[in-house]
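Hi team,

As requested, here is the filled-out complex form for the flavin-adenine dinucleotide run. I kept the field names the same as last time so the parser does not choke. Let me know if anything looks off before we queue the next batch.

— J.
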Amino acid sequence: MLSKGQTWPVLDHGYVKYINSMGDDEEIVEAARMSTGRGFVSWEPYKRCETCDLVDGPLWMASLPECDDSAGHKWKNFPRGDVGFMEYLYSHKHMTPFEMPDLIIEFKAPIMVIWEWVRHRTMSFNIESGRYTQLANEHYLPSKDRFKKQSTTNKQDSSIELFDPDTAALFIEALAREQEQNYETYEDMVAGGVAKELARLNAPMARYSRGRVKANLRNWLAFLLLRKQTKHSNPQWEIAQYADVIGEIIKSLYPRTYELFEEYTLYAETFSRSEMRALRILLKKVGVNPEKGSLTMDDPEFTARTIASLMAKLKG
Ligand SMILES: Cc1cc2nc3c(=O)[nH]c(=O)nc-3n(C[C@H](O)[C@H](O)[C@H](O)COP(=O)(O)OP(=O)(O)OC[C@H]3O[C@@H](n4cnc5c(N)ncnc54)[C@H](O)[C@@H]3O)c2cc1C
Ligand SMILES: [Zn+2]
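And here is what came back:
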């Protein structure tokens, strides 16, 4: 359970603080069921009569009321409770129910990270104003094992190659010295009566600032997809540290949604039309013809549903 105000340290002086949230996994199902007026039932198995709408389970009634229909109840089974329905929504991209929950986070982060964060236009921000307040003397100083060389293959990226510890120490010391001098100039200007909105002109990207950000769950998931380090995205390491903490918060608040996010988005792959053609040809070459249903998998690791959905995708 999260408690309001719970705070996680990030980088050397930053943090992520849980402020507030709205909704849960059940409310997502409830919102989606507005179309039928049936609401959330249970995460446990249950069955519903298609004639009289009676629901039985998960506490299973000892004696059932009679059905409106003299032929008796016509049961439809929900063996995974509403988990199955939620998975259907997510996997078929019915995403508006996932816009119902909201999450507010407070952060303290280097301006460099904030600058990347505010590009997520669907989030609502309130950020400390350097016009009104004097920014604190806090600057991000990367550790030696973060002090990597510029990648030669990706212009945006740092490589995996580190400097030798002595060179790294020299660079880090120079950076620290500069941050100190820089802040002195800033303080002198503020003390000398220069308007804060102008005195801040020398603020480096490393200076810490604070803010609050609110987004709905769908947009938080979009943020995580772009800002967590995965096969799909290669964000700057620093913002990924914030995304990792927020991912854990979301997992704790909306565990079932987070599981679907991991299953269908974060660790999933999509194939282009040409890639699908190539895949089908490849499968035929190794003697598997999905058109003829010759692909079978007995691996107990996969459910029949996963195999059926895979087969449907592989067929032309
Ligand atoms: C690894 C990485 C590198 C990046 N490098 C750069 C860079 O070099 N330069 C740079 O400028 N940015 C860069 N960005 C920022 C990037 O271009 C996006 O601005 C940022 O990731 C926010 O994504 P978004 O637009 O999907 O999010 P949001 O702004 O939150 O939007 C969410 C979704 O809403 C919809 N949407 C929002 N606004 C509009 C609109 N006006 N029109 C249509 N649909 C809209 C889109 O579907 C969008 O995906 C980088 C991002 C990443 C993750
Ligand atoms: Zn009935």
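Two things worth flagging: The pocket of zinc ion (ligand 2) is lined by residues 49, 51-52, 54, 67, 73 (CB under 6 Å). The first helix runs from residue 25 to 32.

Thanks,
J.
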